[in-house]
Each structure stands twice: as structure tokens, then as C-alpha cells.
């Protein structure tokens, strides 16, 4: 064998060796890149889940490379799935959360005070109630104010909002998760349907409330159960309400009106100052008569910005006067 041939064989073997090593390194390299990418996506998903605003708002994420972009897509999908998730900590067969249950008070007792205007046990309690929500415009602000003041309220839900803006269902969950109580305010709020010629139409009212009850349960889950309703316009405003009251009483459902109307729905453009002075004037009138359970009617619907503006001062007023903030069950 010539020296040349041996050399060229040796060189071919060397070359093959080099190719194999290069291939091996490449495989290991690709493997490493793939695992980093895989765990990277997993990690961003986990991180996204923990840090994400619990109420469906997407985090601001700067897109750096393809992997992060995929993670964002995954996260958006997760956000959508979260919207379908039932709220945490529903107290079984109640209208609030496990924590919120500490703040509840019997609705029928409160309604007795509202109707008869009589003093009860001398324990001063205020029930902040918000009708016609949730609204994207004002409910988050109301919830933020309640949270920062560490007080609970009762929300009387109008189910047509979920058809008009499905995102409002997230706010209903937030209300419950933050320990507030949920009442039913019907579906349509259409006076001509519920009370044609000012006279209560039992079947229409039942249908309207049954429908909203189903919608609320579809968002909050079967563990949720509210036995508190508020008739649109209040029970005192319509004729022929007795059969309606009897029907709901037979089902173990209490209706609750109010003691003090904040007047925020009286006409558009009601100012913060008007709302505050109305509440103070009415409350002091009832305090003079030793009334100890004050239910306040307010609204968290769109357009009720003055109510939001007035709320911190309203809360401070009742705190100063020694009231306990309770919710209706
Ligand atoms: Zn209403």
C-alpha cells in the first residue's frame, strides 16, 4: 500500500469522524434549545397565571422573540378559559363567599325595618346596596373603593348586562370573591312588562327573575344560591304586589327595598354633593327615630359616576357614626 493511499484513507476516516462529531454536537445543541424553549413556555405560563390580574386583564408583555410570543398566545387562551372558571370560595348554597358570610345579615329582618320603620336591637348597621349592575364603567371603581375601605356591600344584579356586555360576568365573580353579597334584580327592568299599567304581572315577574337566577348561576356555579331579590322600582311602587310577594315567600326568597334613597337615579346629572347631602339628611331623620338598620339604595350602572365619586365620603360618614357595614342574605 502506498503512503499516499494510507494517507488518503486516514484523511477520509478523519473527515467521517469530524462529520459524526459535528452531527452529535448539533443534536445535543438542538435538544438543549428545544428543552429551553419548552420549559420557557411552561414557565411563562405559570408566571402569567400567578402574576396575572385575577380578573381577566391581560398583562403587558414585551414581545422579544418567537417563544415569548407563543407564551402570550397561550396566556390569552388561558385568560379566556379563566372567564369560564367558577369563582373561588363560594359558600355553598349562599349568595356570598366563605369570607363574605361573616358580614351577612337576615334580609327579612332588614325588610321589616324598611317597611315598618321601627327600631330593633340598637346595633347600628348600614347596608350599602347597588342596583342595575354590573357595568364595565362603574362597577370596578365601586369595588376598588369598597376594597380600599375594607367594607362589604350587596349588589342587585340586572342580568341583561350579561347579554349586552358578556365581560361583565367577570365583575360578578369579582363581587362574590371579594366577599360582597349578590341579590337578584331581574333580567329586563322593563316596567311595562313587569307592571303593565302599574299593576304587577305575576307570570312576567316570575319569568324575568327565573331567567336572571339561571344566568347568575351559570356564571357563579351551582353552589351559589341567592334568596334575596329587589323588585325594579321597589315593592312599594306597584299595585297588586301581594300575590308576587306571596309567591317569592313560598320559595323562601326575601325581597328587600331600602330605607334611604341616595337619589342617584332620580335624574341624570345628579351631583356628588347632592347624593351625599340626601343620604345624610335621610339617615339623620331615621337616626332621630332610633332606626338602627339603614339600607341605602345606590346604582353602579353606566352613567352613575357621581355615585362613585360620592362613595368614599358616604363610607367615611357611616364609619364616623359607628355603623357596622353588613350585607343581605
Ligand atoms: Zn333597578
Give a count of the beta strands, DSSP E runs of length 2 or more: 10
Radius of gyration: 30 Å
Structural class: alpha/beta
Mean pLDDT: 85
Give the low-confidence spans. 40-69
Order of helix and strand elements from N to C terminus: HHEHEHEHHEHHEHEEHEHEE
Secondary structure: helix percent = 40-55%
Shape: elongated
**Quaternary structure:** single chain
**Alpha-carbon distance between the termini?**
102 Å
What is the overall number of helices? 11
Largest sheet: 6 strands, parallel
Question: What ligands can be seen in this structure?
Answer: zinc ion
Q: Give the DSSP E fraction (strand runs of 2 or more residues).
A: 5-15%
Task: Describe what this molecule looks like in 3D.
By secondary structure, this protein is an alpha/beta fold. 51% of the residues lie in helices and 11% in strands. It contains 11 helices and 10 strands. Strands 2, 3, 4, 7, 8 and 9 form a 6-stranded parallel β-sheet that branches. Strands 1-10 form a two-stranded parallel ribbon. α10 links the parallel β7 and β8. α4 runs parallel beside α11 (305-320) and α10 (272-288) packs parallel to α11 (305-320). It is elongated and about 110 Å long. Bound molecules: zinc ion. Residues 131-132, 185, 189, 232 line the site of zinc ion.
Amino acid at each position: 500500500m502506498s503512503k499516499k493511499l494510507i494517507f488518503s484513507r486516514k484523511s477520509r476516516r478523519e473527515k467521517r469522524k469530524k462529520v459524526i462529531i459535528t452531527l452529535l454536537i448539533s443534536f445535543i445543541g438542538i435538544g438543549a434549545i428545544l428543552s429551553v424553549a419548552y420549559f420557557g413556555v411552561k414557565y411563562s405560563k405559570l408566571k402569567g397565571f400567578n402574576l396575572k390580574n385575577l380578573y381577566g386583564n391581560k398583562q403587558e408583555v414585551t414581545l422579544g422573540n418567537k417563544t415569548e410570543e407563543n407564551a402570550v398566545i397561550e396566556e390569552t387562551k388561558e385568560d379566556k378559559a379563566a372567564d369560564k372558571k367558577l369563582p373561588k370560595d363560594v359558600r355553598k348554597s349562599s349568595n356570598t363567599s366563605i369570607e363574605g358570610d361573616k358580614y351577612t345579615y337576615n334580609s327579612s329582618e332588614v325588610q321589616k325595618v324598611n317597611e315598618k320603620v321601627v327600631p330593633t336591637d340598637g346595633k347600628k348597621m348600614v347596608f350599602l346596596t347597588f342596583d342595575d349592575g354590573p357595568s364595565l364603567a362603574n362597577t370596578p371603581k365601586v369595588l376598588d373603593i369598597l376594597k380600599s375601605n375594607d367594607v362589604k356591600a350587596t349588589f342587585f344584579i340586572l342580568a341583561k348586562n350579561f347579554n349586552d356586555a358578556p365581560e361583565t360576568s367577570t365583575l360578578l365573580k369579582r363581587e362574590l370573591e371579594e366577599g360582597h353579597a349578590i341579590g337578584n334584580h331581574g333580567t329586563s327592568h322593563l316596567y311595562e312588562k313587569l307592571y303593565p299599567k302599574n299593576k304587577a304581572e305575576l307570570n312576567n315577574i316570575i319569568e324575568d327573575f327565573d331567567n336572571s337566577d339561571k344566568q347568575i348561576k351559570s356564571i357563579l356555579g351551582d353552589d351559589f344560591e341567592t334568596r334575596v331579590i329587589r323588585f325594579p322600582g321597589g315593592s312599594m311602587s306597584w299595585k297588586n304586589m301581594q300575590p308576587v310577594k306571596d309567591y317569592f315567600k313560598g320559595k323562601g326568597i326575601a325581597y328587600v327595598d331600602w330605607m334611604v334613597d341616595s337619589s342617584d337615579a332620580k335624574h341624570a346629572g345628579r351631583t356628588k354633593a347632592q347624593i351625599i347631602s340626601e343620604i345624610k339628611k335621610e339617615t339623620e331623620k331615621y337616626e332621630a327615630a332610633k332606626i338602627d338598620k339603614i339600607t341605602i339604595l345606590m346604582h353602579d350602572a353606566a352613567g352613575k359616576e357621581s355615585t362613585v365619586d360620592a362613595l368614599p365620603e358616604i363610607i367615611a360618614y357611616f364609619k364616623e357614626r359607628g355603623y357596622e357595614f353588613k350585607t343581605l342574605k
